[in-house]
Amino acid sequence: MRLNGKVLLSGVSLAVGAALGAGLTVWRFQGKCGDEGGLGILSIHAFTQLSPAAGLTRFGLPGLTQVKSRESHVLSYDPRLRGPAWVLEHLTPERLQGGADRQYSEFMEDGSVHPYHRASNSDYKGSGFDRGHLAAAANHKWNQKAMDETFLLSNVYPQNPNLNQNSWNNLEKYCRSLAKKNKNVYICTGPLFLPRMEPDGKMYVRYQVIGANNVAVPTHFFKVVVLEKLSGEIELRSYIMPNCPVDDKIPLDRFLVPIESIERAAGLLFVPNILKSTNNLKAITAGGK
């Protein structure tokens, strides 16, 4: 299934605000009060029809989830982290073949993200981190544009070089091998920011940020693999890897976790259209159970 279009939904900016340290900024409507022009993609008239509290939205909403559709992947962008909350890919044998070459691709800022909320290449310079793809470039060899879009920094997080170039790369290769044996393979990849106990005995979520744009460095990464078998059976394989050096001799099965653990940590629900108690859904965890 080819994904067309660019931005499905982007955050709606505030149309009124105060200048910091410089007095009040005065904004003027370009049209009559209640006109839709200039107030973003959401219609004030539509809100008036939906809710008696519509007056709250007359200047626009501070933000909405930013879901972006690329040539060959879809992502939900989190502007606070300067990276995606999740990235979704569809792998087939056909998509893994073609003439696209990563030597023609360059990492670049995502112009569809507001300058306040996007990462730049300069953030990574001297940071000690790789620019780690969530939608892997090699998954999209069928089309050069599709591969190029995986190099947008909205698809990237700071990743430990040892992890990126070894165990994480092995997991990506394994996912591609699964695409050759199944009807369809869907992959959802994202960051995790997991709590840990500090010396005072309390749990904290702490993570590093890099660069002038304060790009978040995830503590872990997840990858949820949904296999649609030729028999019609659906199989889930869910992985978590820490964002630190990982011995690439450790079997990938050691990183399998119950899908519920990722859903709780990430605030997401995977395969919500399928009841996980049904007989045609098989969840693979460590030990193959």
TrEMBL record:
EC number, as in UniProt: 3.1.30.-
Keywords, sorted A to Z: Disulfide bond, Endonuclease, Hydrolase, Magnesium, Metal-binding, Mitochondrion, Nuclease, Transit peptide
Chain ranges of the DNA/RNA non-specific endonuclease/pyrophosphatase/phosphodiesterase domain: 69-277
CC terms in the record's Gene Ontology section: mitochondrial inner membrane; nucleus
Active-site residue numbers: H133
Binding site for Mg(2+): N164
Domain ENPP1-3/EXOG-like endonuclease/phosphodiesterase: 70-277
Reported cofactor(s): Mg(2+)
Localization in the cell: Mitochondrion
Any GO BP: apoptotic DNA fragmentation
Pfam annotation, one family: Endonuclease_NS
Top EC group: hydrolase
Annotated CDD domains: NUC
GO molecular function: metal ion binding; nucleic acid binding; RNA endonuclease activity; single-stranded DNA endodeoxyribonuclease activity
Highest taxon of the lineage: Eukaryota
Primary residence: mitochondrion
Family: Belongs to the DNA/RNA non-specific endonuclease family.
Protein name: Endonuclease
Species of origin: Hymenochirus boettgeri (Congo dwarf clawed frog)
